[in-house]
Every structure is written in structure tokens, then in C-alpha cells.
């Protein structure tokens, strides 16, 4: 007996459409499982013949809209059953399957709101939000305010969730398990969400051993395929020959990128500044274990201090406040009561017997700078310490002279608050990051931006120049780190791995490694050579506000809102990576070009995480959150933050 597709009941017709869709996509096992449950209304050949006339877009619409009249409790029942199934799945596949829960949870709630089921949606959110609150509390809090379809149209986070897909990676067998389960249970609502809002990258074989933190990938605006294409672009992460004279002699030459660099004309530092840097490097103390730390504490300013910055030698300290003022302390001036002791401290790395800490009492030691009309969020000294840049909520950036303590230029371009600003390592150029989701590249002699870098889906919170000054790093509230080519004006790398906004960035002196940190309390180390995450440092209990590498690149310092400074051993991670590269080079020697390429493709990108991150030390303050960190050229670690009064 054969019947036309249009004459069968609604459920059977929907199943037939889904069956053909699965066959088109190549989901063989899932298609066979579903086909066994379809009544024999037609032969398989007749089904294929009839359904071949349907366009794939109609099949997709059937999957998405075929259950639009379902009872809203179906979302609760489907999600709860799927969650219980993933939790009880095999240990080897459980992490990959559980990475689906948060995206499905979000879109189940949004589907309910979009269909007008406000009560059911709020009940669903309150029932399941606790299991996701640890990592996604901020997003869930923003989504809880979305209670009508009109709210969805006005909420930028909802628009991003609906427009862009979550990138998730899992092995082929785990994917087959998931699709077979959804079909066998008839969870078409969840299948619709997986089809429309998740981009699942299926890899062959068993689940790959990896850092469990890196399985879930936040929305970046690009698919995994597009990100992989970006990562194929060639970048020169090394230093240029004229820049290597500023590198420490102990810097591991094996980490330098040796092939011919691109030819660009870079600005140069004046001879006096160059001589000072080289002299400081000669006095450098090796910090394979722990460096000396100098902490600048700001009293009576916990509620008003917004940012701090220190000059390259540590002799100038700047602080920005919420009342739009900037204060600058010059510790090298003759009238400063700290002059002699501070200089001895800097020259001897804190071992001078006459050095005794004292409180600063003279108001004349600081200079107040007035010009902004809103809180100051970013500060940056030029490499020669002659100029200071400041960024503010008033959407402007200002250039100040440290000789006259006056404002020289006001740069306008951003349309909203400017969260961060930084001078180029060679001066002259600088970069800004703003609430308008863009980063901008400027020169000090032009009031208009030379480049605008757009691509982030939310605020750009921090910006950092690569040591060779040819690239720019940006960290955003969209949890992504982007690497921009300044000369081309394009994004060449996208790194995803954080679960919260990124607030701080640091680059190693050799230019190969990047560290990022933020609201998730973790510090992630990235390798620009392989475009991979190579280590995750855990230990802080609050937001990590500041990062910096020591001058030989062996130690990474982090300052946090938990009032501690931590030092991390980066050399162990680097040595592990270099050892692995040498072994791979030996293995590929003698292979044909094709065999070497295949061996490279078969390499697990997460194998670089085989060195256990090590904390060299934790240094707590009394009650001073660390807002800023900076290694001087002599490897003195300077830190700054406001003192927090004990709560009564």
C-alpha cells in the first residue's frame, strides 16, 4: 500500500521530512533508527522520489516549526530528560555531551519567551539556572530580564545568541549517541535547537584528551571553520632585528622566530631612552624563582580609584579617579622625600641596607591633571616617560606632557566610554579600547584614528601591543581574545576559552606567548606559533585585573581583586612545548612533504597542555586589591592598588 506524503497524518509526514533531511546531512545511523519507526506508507524509493522534490529549506522549517503548537511543558520535560541522560552517560563521552546543556538551556528559555509562554519560561529558568550559575551568572542575569518577545528584539545578548551559533566539538560516536537519543525519544524541540543554534564540529575517533575548560566555545561571530581559516594566515610573532637589542641576554634564543621578517619602517626611541633601557637591563636580576615586589598603596581611595599605571622604570606613578582627575607622583624629583631611598631600591633590587619604607606626606609630591569630564579608566606612560595618555568615560583620549604637567592633545573618535589605552612599545603610536565594541589605532600627531578594528560582539575591555608593534591584542566582554594585523587592518587570530569578560592581557618578551585573564579568575596562556591554548593557571578567587611577564619571560605575575599577587612558572611550560617541537621535527625529517603535512593534521591540538602549571608563590596584602602590575627593566615587580578599610 502506498500513499502520497500529503495524505498521511501530521506525525508521519513530519518524520518523513526529518528522515530525508538526516539522509541529506549524512547522519546514517540516526536516519536508520528513525526509519524503523515510520509506518510503511511508501517504499523507500517512493519516499526518496517524493521528498527529492522538497527543498532543504522546507525540511528545515518542518523541523523547526512542526511542533510550534506543543505544550510549553514539553521544553521542561525534554530538557530534564536530556540532562539526566548526559549525566548518566559513559565517562569518556560525558564532558562532550554535557557541553550541549548550556546552549540548549538558553534557547529553550528564549523559545518559550518568543512563543509568549512567559510563566513557563520563568519557571524553566528558575528551575535550571543554578546548575549554570557558577560560570554564566552574568549572562543568565541579563536574560532573566527578558520576559516578552519585544524584550528579545531590544536585548543585544539575545540578538547575538539568535544570530550566531555556539561552536562545540565532539567525537563522531558521541554525536551519533546524541542524535539517536533525541530521535528515539521524539525530542524535536531540542533537535530544532541543535540544528539552528549549535555548530557542532565532529572529529573522528574517540574523545580527545584535553583541558576540560576548553570543550565549550563561546559565541565569537565566526564558525569553527572560519576560525581555522583565520589561523592559517601567516603571522610574524617574533621580534625585528632592531628590537632585539632591548631583549635580555638570558632570553632563550630557541624561542626567537628566525625566518626573514616582513619589511616595515618602525619608529625609533631616542638615544637617551635607549641607553637608559640598556643600562637597566644590565642591572637586571634573574627571577627564575621570586622577584622583589614593591607595592604602592593608595589610602582613602578605595571607592574612587579606577586605574593605575607605572612608568617603565617605576619612577612615575599615575592614578585615575572617578571624579575625572589624574594624579601623578614623580619619585625621582629632587624634592621628593623618597628620592634617595627609592633610587637605591631600584638600583639594588631592594637589597640596600638604608632602604626603609615611609609614608608620603607632602602634597607637593603629586601633580593633579584636570581636563576630562568623566571617570578616568585607562592610563599609559610613553616608553621614555615624557608623555602620559588617559582615556575616560567622556569618550575622549588625552595626551599629557610630564615636563609641564599640561594637556597637549584631545583625541576624539569613540562614541562611548573608552575603557583602555596603551602606548606602542616604541612610542609615537597608541591604541584604545571602547564600549562601542571597537579598538582603534592612533598616532600622536593625528587627532583621527588610523585604523578601526571591529569584530567583537561586546565591549572591548583591554588592549595590548605585541612586542614587535605590528600586531594588536584585544580582550572583550564577549569572552574572546582577538589578534589584529595593524598593517592590514584585519583580524588574524581568534582565541576562545574564557567563561567571563577578559580584563587583562600580557605578552612574553619574545613575542610568542600571550596571557589573558578576567572575571572567571583563571589565567590562560596562548601560543601564537600554534594558535593553541597551552596552559591554564588557577588559584585566584576573584577577578584578575593585571598581568605582566618578567623581562626574561620565565615568570608571569598576576594581580587580583582577592588582594594577592601570584607568580607563575612559565619556563616549564615553554620548555615542554619546545621539547615536543624538537621531537616532532625529528620524526618528520626524512618524510615526504605530503606525509609531513598529514602527520601535522593528525596531531592533537590539545597535546601541548602536558606541563602542569606551577605557582611559584602567593603574596597576600593586608586588604589591597591589585589594580596594576609592572616589571621594570631591572626585573623589579611594581604593584599598585587601593587600601580597603575593614568592614565594621
Characterization of the model:
- With 648 residues, this protein is an alpha+beta fold.
- The protein has 18 helices and 30 strands.
- The strands form eight sheets. The chain has a four-stranded antiparallel sheet, with no helix packed on it. It has a four-stranded antiparallel sheet with strand order 9-10-11-12, with no helix packed on it.
- It is globular.
- The model is unreliable at 1-8, 41-69, 354-358 and 599-610 (pLDDT under 50).
What descriptors fit this protein?
disordered N terminus; 30 strands; 648 residues; 30% helix; four-stranded antiparallel beta sheet
Set down the secondary structure blueprint.
Elements (H helix, E strand, L loop, with lengths): L9 H16 L2 H8 L8 H8 L4 H10 L7 H15 L6 H5 L2 H14 L3 H11 L4 H11 L5 H6 L1 H8 L2 E6 H14 L2 H10 E6 L12 E2 L6 H8 L39 H12 L10 E6 L6 E6 L5 E6 L4 E5 L8 H10 L17 E4 L6 E6 L5 E6 L3 E6 L4 E7 L5 E6 L5 E6 L3 E6 L7 E4 L5 E6 L5 E6 L3 E6 L4 E7 L5 E6 L5 E6 L4 E5 L4 E6 L6 E6 L5 E6 L3 E6 L1 H18 L4 H10 L11 E7 L7 E4 L5 E6 L6
Parallel strand pairs: 1-2, 4-30
Antiparallel strand pairs: 1-3, 5-6, 6-7, 7-8, 9-10, 10-11, 11-12, 13-14, 14-15, 15-16, 17-18, 18-19, 19-20, 21-22, 22-23, 23-24, 25-26, 26-27, 27-28, 29-30
Report the sheet with the most strands, covering strand number, pairing sense and barrel closure: 4 strands, antiparallel
Placed side by side, the strands forming the largest sheet appear as: 5-6-7-8
Backbone shape: globular
Rg (CA only): 28 Å
Structure annotation, total helices: 18
Q: List how many beta strands DSSP finds.
A: 30
Mean pLDDT: 79
Amino acid at each position: 500500500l502506498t500513499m502520497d506524503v500529503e495524505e498521511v497524518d501530521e506525525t508521519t509526514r513530519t518524520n518523513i521530512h526529518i528522515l530525508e533531511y538526516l539522509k541529506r546531512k549524512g547522519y546514517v545511523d540516526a536516519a536508520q533508527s528513525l526509519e524503523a519507526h515510520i509506518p510503511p506508507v511508501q517504499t523507500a524509493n517512493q519516499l526518496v522520489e517524493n521528498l527529492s522534490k522538497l527543498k532543504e529549506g522546507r525540511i528545515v522549517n518542518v523541523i523547526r516549526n512542526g511542533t510550534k503548537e506543543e505544550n510549553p511543558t514539553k521544553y521542561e520535560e525534554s530538557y530534564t530528560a536530556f540532562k539526566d541522560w548526559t549525566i548518566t552517560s559513559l565517562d569518556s563521552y560525558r564532558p562532550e555531551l554535557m557541553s550541549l546543556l548550556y546552549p540548549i538551556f538558553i534557547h529553550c528559555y528564549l523559545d518559550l519567551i518568543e512563543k509568549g509562554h512567559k510563566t513557563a519560561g520563568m519557571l524553566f529558568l528558575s528551575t535550571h539556572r543554578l546548575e549554570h550559575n557558577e560560570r554564566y551568572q552574568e549572562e543568565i542575569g541579563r536574560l532573566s530580564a527578558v520576559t516578552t518577545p519585544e524584550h528579545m528584539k531590544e536585548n543585544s545578548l539575545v540578538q547575538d545568541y539568535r544570530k550566531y551559533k555556539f561552536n562545540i566539538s565532539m567525537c563522531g560516536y558521541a554525536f551519533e549517541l546524541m542524535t539517536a537519543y533525541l530521535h528515539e525519544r521524539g525530542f524535536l524541540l531540542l533537535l530544532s535547537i541543535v540544528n539552528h543554534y549549535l555548530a557542532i564540529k565532529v572529529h573522528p575517533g574517540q574523545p580527545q584528551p584535553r583541558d576540560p575548560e576548553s570543550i565549550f566555545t563561546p559565541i565569537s561571530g565566526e564558525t569553527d571553520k572560519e576560525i581555522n581559516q583565520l589561523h592559517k594566515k601567516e603571522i610574524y610573532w617574533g621580534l625585528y632585528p632592531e628590537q632585539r637589542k632591548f631583549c635580555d641576554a638570558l632570553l632563550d634564543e630557541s624561542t626567537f622566530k628566525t625566518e626573514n621578517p616582513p619589511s616595515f619602517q618602525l619608529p625609533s626611541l631616542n638615544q637617551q631612552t635607549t641607553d637608559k633601557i640598556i643600562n637597566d637591563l644590565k642591572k637586571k636580576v634573574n627571577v627564575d624563582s621570586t622577584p622583589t615586589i614593591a607595592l604602592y598603596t593608595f589610602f582613602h581611595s578605595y571607592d574612587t580609584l579606577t586605574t593605575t599605571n607605572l612608568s617603565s622604570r617605576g619612577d612615575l606613578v599615575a592614578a585615575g579617579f572617578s571624579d575625572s582627575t589624574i594624579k601623578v607622583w614623580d619619585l625621582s624629583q629632587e624634592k621628593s622625600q623618597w628620592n634617595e631611598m627609592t633610587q637605591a631600591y631600584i638600583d639594588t633590587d631592594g637589597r640596600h641596607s638604608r632602604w626603609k619604607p615611609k609614608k608620603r606626606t607632602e602634597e607637593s609630591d603629586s601633580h593633579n591633571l584636570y581636563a576630562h569630564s568623566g571617570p578616568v579608566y585607562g592610563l599609559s606612560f610613553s616608553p621614555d616617560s615624557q608623555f602620559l595618555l588617559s582615556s575616560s568615560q567622556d569618550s575622549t583620549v588625552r595626551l599629557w606632557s610630564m615636563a609641564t604637567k599640561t594637556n597637549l592633545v584631545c583625541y576624539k573618535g569613540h562614541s562611548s566610554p573608552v575603557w583602555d589605552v596603551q602606548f606602542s612599545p616604541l612610542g609615537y603610536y597608541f591604541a584604545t579600547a571602547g564600549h562601542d565594541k571597537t579598538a582603534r589605532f592612533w598616532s600622536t600627531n593625528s587627532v583621527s584614528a588610523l585604523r578601526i578594528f571591529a569584530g567583537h560582539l561586546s565591549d572591548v575591555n583591554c588592549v595590548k601591543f605585541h612586542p614587535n608593534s605590528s600586531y594588536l591584542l584585544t580582550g572583550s566582554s564577549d569572552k574572546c581574545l582577538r589578534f589584529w594585523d595593524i598593517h592590514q587592518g584585519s583580524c588574524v587570530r581568534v582565541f576562545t576559552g574564557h567563561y567571563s569578560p577578559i580584563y587583562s592581557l600580557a605578552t612574553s618578551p619574545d613575542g610568542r606567548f600571550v596571557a589573558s585573564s578576567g572575571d572567571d579568575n583563571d589565567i590562560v596562556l596562548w601560543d601564537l606559533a600554534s594558535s593553541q591554548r597551552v596552559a591554564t593557571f588557577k588559584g585566584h578567587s576573584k577577578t584578575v585585573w593585571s598581568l605582566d611577564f618578567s623581562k626574561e619571560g620565565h615568570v608571569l605575575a598576576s594581580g587580583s581583586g582577592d588582594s594577592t599577587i601570584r607568580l607563575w612558572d612559565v619556563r616549564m611550560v615553554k620548555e615542554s612545548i619546545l621539547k615536543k617541537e624538537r621531537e616532532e621535527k625529528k620524526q618528520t625529517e626524512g618524510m615526504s612533504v605530503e606525509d609531513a603535512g598529514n602527520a601535522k593534521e593528525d596531531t592533537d591540538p590539545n597535546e601541548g597542555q602536558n606541563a602542569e602549571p606551577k605557582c611559584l608563590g602567593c603574596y597576600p596584602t593586608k586588604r589591597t586589591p591589585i589594580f596594576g602590575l609592572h616589571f621594570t627593566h631591572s626585573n623589579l615587580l611594581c604593584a599598585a592598588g587601593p587600601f580597603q578599610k575593614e568592614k565594621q
